[in-house]
C-alpha cells in the first residue's frame, strides 16, 4: 500500500477517509495470501496513520474501521493480520507519548473485541480459539518475555473478560431472552481463553503483572459466571498454590 493511501486513512474529512477504508477492505479481502512481512510493513504504516489521526470522533471511527478488517479477511490471512498487529503494538508502544495513549488503548480494545467477534461468528471452534491463543502466547502474552510492554499487557488483562462478555451478549438472538453468563458461554472454550493468564500467574517473572492477571482476569466475577462450575474461592486457592511454587521479581 502506498504512503499517500495510508495518509488518506487519517484524513479529517469523512469522504476521503471512507474511500481509503473501502480500498483497504478490497485489498485485504482478496483471496491473495499475505506473508507476515507484507502485513508487518502495512501495520507500520497504519500505526503512524493512527498516530497522526486527530479529533476523538475520527480516532474512534478509524480504530473501529481497522479492527473490523479482521472480519473480512480469509481464514488463511486472519491470524497473520492479528499477529502483525500485536507485534507492531509490542515494538512501537514505548514510543507513544502520553497525549496519544488513550486513543491507542481504544485501538487495543477494538482489536480484542473484534477478534472475539470473529471467533464467535465461526462458532467458537476450539482449533481456531487455540490458534489465536497460541498467537498471543508467543507475542503480547508470552509469560516469560519481559521485553513486551507492560502497558499493552496490563490493558489486555483489564479488558479481556469484559470484552468477551460484551461479544457474547451482542450475539444473543431475540429468541434467546435473558440468558445467564453460563448459558451464553455454553459453546465457548473458556479454558483456552484464560490459559495465557493462568500460565502468566504461574510463571511470569514480573509479580505486578501476575497480580494484575489474577485480579482482573482469573478472579473476575464475570469469569466466575462464565465458568459456572467453579467457585471464586476454589479458583483463588488454586492460584495461590501455583504462585507459592514460583518467586519472581517486581
Descriptive report:
- With 250 residues, this protein is mostly helical.
- 69% of the residues lie in helices and 0% in strands.
- The protein is built from 13 helices and no strands.
- Helix 1 crosses helix 2.
- It is globular, with a radius of gyration of 19 Å.
- Mean pLDDT is 89; it is low at 229-234.
Number of strands: 0
Discrete helix count = 13
Summarize the main sheet: none
Give the C-alpha Rg.
Answer: 19 Å
Q: Helix/strand/pairing class, anyone?
A: mainly alpha
Q: SSE order in H/E notation?
A: HHHHHHHHHHHHH
Helix content: 55-70%
Shape: globular
List low-pLDDT spans: 229-234
Strand content: under 5%
What does the average pLDDT come to? 89
Instruction: Calculate the terminal CA-CA distance, rounded to whole Å.
Output: 42 Å
Compact description:
The chain is mainly α. The protein is built from 13 helices and no strands. The model is unreliable at 229-234 (pLDDT under 50).
List keywords for this structure.
250 residues; mainly alpha
Spell out the blueprint of helices and strands.
Layout: H1 3-9, H2 14-28, H3 36-51, H4 56-68, H5 75-92, H6 101-121, H7 126-137, H8 150-170, H9 181-184, H10 190-203, H11 207-218, H12 221-227, H13 232-244
Helix pairs in contact: 1-2, 1-3, 3-5, 4-6, 5-7, 6-8, 7-10, 8-11, 10-11
